[in-house]
Each structure stands twice: as C-alpha cells, then as structure tokens.
C-alpha cells in the first residue's frame, strides 16, 4: 500500500459529528489562532477538564462532568463545541460551562464566532418563538419538515448568536448532523467575512492607483515625443504597489471564496421550507452575506484588472522605446552605409591611381632598359620593343590587379 493510503482514506472520518438525543444545549466557538496557540489552548482545556488531549490529532470527542466536548483543528481556525443536556434548572440561554470560563476569557480576542444552539422537542418547547427572546425572528422548516430552526441573528450581551431548533422527528444521528450544519454556516460565514475589511481598505488604495494609471496613460498618449524613462519609473513603482496589494490580499480573498462556497452548500443541505410569514433562515443569511462575498470578489477582480492594465501600458511603453531604438539603429546603419560607400569610392580611386603609378614606373623602367641596350650597341626597333613590352606590361598589371582583389576579398 502507498504510505499515505490509510491517512487519506481516514479523511472520510476526520470530522465526525456529536450524536445526541435532545433536548440539549450546544455551545460552539471558533478561535482564529496559529498552531502554537492552539496547543496552548488544548493544554488549557485538558487542565480545566482534567482529561488527556491528543494535540497532534485533527479532532477529538471526550466526555467530562456531564458534558461532551469536541474540538477540531482547521487550516486557519480552531473550533470547540460543548454539549450539555437540558434539565429543569437549565436557563433558557445559559452561559458557557464554568470549566470553560477561564479559557474563554483568556482567549476572548481570538474568538471569531460564538454560537449557542438550544434544541427542544416539538411537544415540549414553549410553543411561541417570542417566548425565547427573539427580536424579528427568522424561521424555516428543514430536513423535510422534520425540524424547525429559529433565530434573529442578534448578538446577546456576551456577543453570542442564538439559534433554536425544534425537533419533530430527527433521530440522534440526524440531529447531530443538523447541529453541525448550523455551526458550519455560522463559523464559515464569519471566516468568510474576514475578507470584507480588507476589501474596503483595498478599495481606497485602488482608487488612488487607478487615478495614477489614468494619468500615466494620458501622458503616454499625449506626449509621444517625450522621453519614456520617467513614465517607466512611475509605472514600475505603480506595478510594484499593485503586486504588493495582490500578495497581501490574495490569500484572504481566496479563503473568502472557499468559505462562502461551504456556507452556500450547507444552506442547501438544510432543505428549507417557508414557515408562515417569517423570512427563511437561509434567505436571510444569503441576502446579507452574498453582497459581502461578491464585494470581496469584485475587489479581487478590480485589482487583477488594474494590474493587467498596468502591464499593457508597460508593454506599450516598451514597444515605443523599442521602435525608437530601431529608428536610431536604422539611422546609424544608414550613416555606416554612407561611410562605407565613401570609403569604397576612395579605395577604388586609390586602386586606379596605384595602377597608373605602377604603369608609369614600369614604362619608365622599360624605357631605361631600352636606352641602356642602345648605348651598348644593341639596336632594337620600336615595333619589336612594343611587341615585347606590351604583353609584359599587361601581364604585370593583371597580376597586380588580381593581387589587390584577393587582398580585398580576404
């Protein structure tokens, strides 16, 4: 077997739900912490509950003090779920268990999502959603009308969101999965919303960068004769700023998109049906959640578009500079051609003069030779002298010309 076969297969069982029978109260917290901080939190939890925690595991479900604790480690966050059964003395919306209070107080700044879910049976609940303190509640029948969910999505004095699930016929397994879906919606919704502040901050930066790019584009269009170096420097600085923005926000916006897809999937899994005149739970969430997700996606797309525009302007400037360089090179080549042509003409003139001079010296030498022969008493007729001197001169001049051409060729 492949060394990763068992671990990859066991991913199917990596995120189990807490299975329980209602009525019950579930507290769910999500902590935005790094791995080192998670280890400290788990050690704190183990000390408070007096149980052993497997800090290297992805999740764990343990029972202690009539409570069921479940923790999970995710890529960016850590979740803790606590389930307790309801009895006659349990408040309608109780505070977290006493053993968790020190842990929650110490890590309060890291809590990104806090949800309180109350589960009651259909024949035991108060019968009216107003009795649970909801203000302008939303509600839906879910899971094929086997349960009803209520909430007003208003944080209480402890900054906790409250949900009420009225169970008609869900067994313990379906009840556990339904609770997990609701917690996933709240947790991943809040994790996705972390991209919204960055998107708003990025919007102000992009407005400035768009103005700069517009100015540079105008200068490029209207100042074709100006030197491109200042534009290159400004555009390079702008591209560096856009790349910095992309590096800072790319991961957050990608995470927002991924978390939003999980929220959309979990809402679909609820299989909601309308409950009277109340707005549906999923519709209420999506109506306010989707615009934020789309805003983050729009900012990401706006940044990519701006970076692409800067790249195109950079390409135009490079093309313009390249054309100018080619024009300069063409002028230089033309100047070199003219110089070469002049040099060839001068060289031809020198070659002609050289042949003339050499011819002059040859005839002078032949004349001296003939005069010397006449002085010695050897009479040579002019016709004979011409017959001898002419071919010889032509041969010598031809050899000299051939030698000059060979030197030029090399």
TrEMBL record:
Keywords, ordered alphabetically: Coiled coil, Membrane, Transmembrane, Transmembrane helix
Protein name stated in the entry: DUF3422 domain-containing protein
Membrane-spanning ranges: 380-402
Natural source organism: Vreelandella boliviensis LC1
Membrane found in the keyword field: yes
Coiled-coil boundaries: 199-226
Phylogenetic placement of the source organism: Bacteria, Pseudomonadati, Pseudomonadota, Gammaproteobacteria, Oceanospirillales
Domain of life, per lineage: Bacteria
